[in-house]
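re: the backbone from monday

yeah here it is again, tokenized this time
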């Protein structure tokens, strides 16, 4: 029998994150504890606690990984698109829904769990703030008024979360979710234009 190979700290972290996503996907967010993760990953509890300290730290790490992946996908989509409103709205809608669907049904559960403590809510808010700033930057140039309000961006994010979650739960198709989100973004931009002209 070959001796077990030791993983570097980064390799172990990646293994634990991958296993955590697997637990959430197969058993649900409620099943994700550090003790359960240790058993599934075949390591001792101190190894898991060394990486995440507590369940909130693990949930925050999962959300940050999802957020980084989502930002990279959206950055790439925006970089390759024209600045016209219909194009930007379509690109943002497709990238948002695709990222949630790529992660599967587990991300809505992780996002919901983030609301469970002030510490996790702060992590979620920071991610949302960065995402909204990215959207504002992408959409202001496409907006007929050259402006996008915070209220409009918040409404867009609420719609994006609801539509992507519904698509992940197979309540609607991904195509329907993307189309509705695109239309919501375009409607928001039209309202911005109407308000600036009043």
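seq for it, each position gets an aa:
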């Amino acid at each position: 029998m070959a001796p077990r190979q030791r993983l570097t700290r980064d390799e172990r972290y990646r293994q634990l994150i991958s296993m955590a996503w697997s637990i959430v996907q197969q058993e649900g967010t409620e099943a994700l504890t550090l003790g359960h993760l240790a058993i599934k990953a075949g390591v001792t509890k101190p190894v898991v606690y060394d990486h995440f300290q507590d369940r909130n730290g693990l949930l925050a790490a999962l959300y940050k990984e999802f957020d980084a992946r989502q930002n990279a996908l959206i950055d790439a989509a925006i970089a390759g698109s024209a600045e016209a409103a219909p194009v930007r709205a379509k690109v943002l809608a497709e990238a948002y829904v695709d990222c949630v669907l790529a992660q599967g049904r587990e991300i809505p559960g992780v996002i919901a769990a983030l609301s469970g403590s002030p510490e996790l809510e702060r992590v979620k808010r920071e991610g949302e703030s960065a995402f909204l700033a990215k959207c504002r930057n992408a959409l202001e140039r496409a907006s007929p008024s050259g402006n996008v309000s915070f209220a409009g961006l918040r409404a867009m994010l609420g719609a994006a979360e609801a539509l992507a979650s519904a698509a992940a739960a197979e309540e609607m198709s991904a195509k329907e979710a993307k189309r509705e989100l695109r239309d919501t973004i375009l409607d928001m931009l039209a309202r911005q234009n109407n308000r600036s002209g009043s």
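Residues 55-79 form the longest helix (25 residues). The domain at 57-197 is CATH 1.10.357 (Tetracycline Repressor; domain 2).
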